[in-house]
Amino acid sequence: MLDLEEQEQLEELKIWWNRYRYAVLALLFVIIASVIGIQLWKKYEANQLNQAASLDVAMHNAYLENNMALVKAYGGKLIQAYGNTSYASRAALLLAKVNHQAGDDKSALAQIHWVVTHADDTNLVAIARLREASILLEQKQYPAALKSLVHHEPKAFSFLYDDMRGDIYHAMGQDNLARQDWTKSLNEMSKTNGYRQLVQMKLDALG
Q1: Does the pTM exceed 0.90?
Q2: What percent of the chain has pLDDT over 90?
Q3: Domains and CATH numbers, the chain
Q4: Comparing C-alpha atoms, which of 186, 133, 146 is closest to residue 203?
Q5: In terms of C-beta distances under 8 Å and separation of at least 24 residues, what long-range contacts does 165-174 make, across chains too?
């Protein structure tokens, strides 16, 4: 038999349970639902990534086969259905390349802008800004091209940004500024970077 103290504790527990059981059950329900929800969400995200990866492979295979209609179809689906993944940003960059090669710079710039405003990967954004500047340079929209490069880029892209600025200033006839940026680009590269030769050639051409 229970002694008096144990009986009192049991009675207190019964009283507590009768008073708070619904709150306890509700809390347990929330905890269980949260755990299940997190597991389902992780499964959903993994499934999304797998599907996006499959489309990415199909899109690049279509590009290698020179089937640009399929490239655009797969790329469009990636952006529309999986816009929160890095695959979508890479798809947009490839679509921009395809459109630019086809002479449709308006669509190319629109795809690049999508990457700039949606991509979480700073490297992809940096690539997008470089490509935007390159297209605008070809269009002789020099101030706009320079504006594309005013944003702070990842350090690994600094030499490419300065090289592009040099190209823009050279096209504008401002060779003193071009020389400064090309020199800066050289100084930012390692001695073993093969890109150095191209930038050095530009500097040598200035005399």
Answers
A1: no
A2: 66
A3: 1-120 (1.25.40), 122-207 (1.25.40)
A4: 186
A5: 166/199, 166/202, 167/137, 167/202, 168/133, 168/137, 168/142, 170/202, 170/206, 171/137, 171/140, 171/142, 172/142
